[in-house]
Design a protein that fits this description.
Number of domains: 3
Largest sheet: 5 strands, antiparallel
Strand content: 25-35%
CATH topology of the largest domain: Uridine Diphospho-n-acetylenolpyruvylglucosamine Reductase, domain 3
Number of helices: 8
Number of strands: 20
Strand order of the largest sheet: 6-7-12-10-11
Helix content: 25-40%
Structural class: alpha+beta
Bound molecules: uridine-diphosphate-2(N-acetylglucosaminyl) butyric acid
Shape: globular
Oligomer: single chain
Order of helices and strands: EEHEEEEEHEEEEHEHHEEHEEHEEEHE
């Protein structure tokens, strides 16, 4: 059943109004196939809507994935395999694994969005990416309505990248994701901010819950809660730059932060570049650059997608002018 002319404002974390010509939800693969059988119109698939900026109304059909379920498909002495529906809220999955003491996803606590969307951009935070615990996924091939399985290698994961954002863009709908999680304590607290947070709490031997709580505390201190202030997390990727460019910036800014990539390249935090260029906390109309994390653009209430997009372009142009670095958007733009 398609609903007509539906406002997507509450289906994306940016909270920006844009209308879908037709809209429907599916909670099983069979339902999804039935919906596809009933339409020839162009498709847009929504997950949690947490990495999406809508700049116009959407022609055709918008489908929302609501396939639920977290199921143990294999239980071994030292690891489990979980099959998770694409419509499961990401943080609900993380909380489930913490409850059960399955190790691997705790650093990814509180990331907004859905499980089905998580492999699209290989979500990551605090030294972990989903590719580290990812086993395989099932996706419906839209053109022939057949389910296909993709292994980790076939997903071609990169930094906020996968095959589904590139060569297979718009061709598949991710229905289920399988994770391989350790039953033996393996925690990754080496990312500076986690250790510091645990230290301030006086925790020297953390549990899985301690690490998750630390990540939640760090995220809450820097990142705006979408239910209070519309946003889509990091709006830009951290750029990979040539060492020569980094050295040039270092001449003026001795403390420029960086992460090594290889012999000749490193990553500079886009948040640092944007803050240093003077954009942090800037507001234009109803949109702006977050006051606590310059990588995040926010909607103060009634911003349009175009206004947010135009602000992001101004930032991209300014960073290029000041640092000769081309920022790339991380958020999907429709
Ligand atoms: N920084 C600034 N000013 C700012 C923001 C950051 O100078 O306004 C500097 C900080 O001083 C720090 C560095 O940038 O040295 C890194 O900042 P932070 O640890 O906050 O992480 P990030 O590189 O800005 C990335 C991810 C986040 C993820 C964090 C933690 C991307 C695009 N973003 O941000 O992911 O939570 O690391 O691992 O890679 C997301 O993708 O939506 C997201 C929030």
């Amino acid at each position: 059943m398609f609903q007509k002319n539906i406002d997507l404002k509450n289906f994306t974390t940016f909270g920006i109004s844009a209308f879908a010509e037709e809209f429907a939800v599916f909670s099983t693969v069979e339902e999804l196939i039935r919906l596809l059988d009933e339409t020839e119109k162009p498709l847009t698939i929504l997950g949690g809507g947490s990495n999406l900026l809508l700049t116009k109304n959407i022609d055709g059909v918008v489908l929302k994935n609501e396939i639920l379920g977290i199921e143990v498909t294999e239980d071994h002495t030292d690891f489990v395999i979980l099959k998770v529906g694409g419509g499961v809220v990401w943080h609900d999955l993380v909380m489930h694994t913490i409850d059960k003491q399955y190790y691997g996803l705790e650093n990814l606590s509180l990331i907004p969005g859905s499980v089905g969307a998580s492999p699209m951009q290989n979500i990551g935070a605090y030294g972990v990416e989903i590719k580290d615990c990812f086993l395989k996924l099932e996706a419906l091939h839209i053109s022939d309505k057949k389910i296909e399985t993709f292994t980790k290698e076939q997903c071609e994961f990169g930094y906020r990248e996968s095959v589904f954002k590139r060569k297979y863009k718009g061709q598949y709908i991710i229905t289920n994701v399988y994770f391989k999680l350790s039953k033996i304590q393996t925690l990754n607290t080496s990312y500076g901010a986690i250790d510091a947070e645990l230290n301030t709490k006086g925790i020297s031997i953390p549990s899985i819950k301690d690490v998750s709580d630390a990540v939640i505390a760090i995220r809450k201190s820097k990142l705006p809660n979408p239910s209070e202030l519309g946003n889509a997390g990091s709006f830009f990727k951290n750029p990979v730059v040539a060492k020569s460019i980094y050295e040039k910036i270092k001449q003026s800014y001795v403390n420029v932060p960086s992460y090594p990539i290889n012999e000749s390249e490193l990553k500079i935090p886009a948040g640092w570049l944007i803050e240093t260029a003077g954009w942090k906390g800037k507001r234009i109309g109803d949109c702006g650059v977050h006051t606590k994390q310059a990588l995040v653009l926010v909607n103060y209430g009634n911003a349009t997608g175009k206004e947010v997009f135009d602000l992001s372009q101004k930032i991209i142009d300014d960073i290029y002018q000041k640092f000769q670095i081309q920022l790339e958007r991380e958020v999907n733009i429709l």
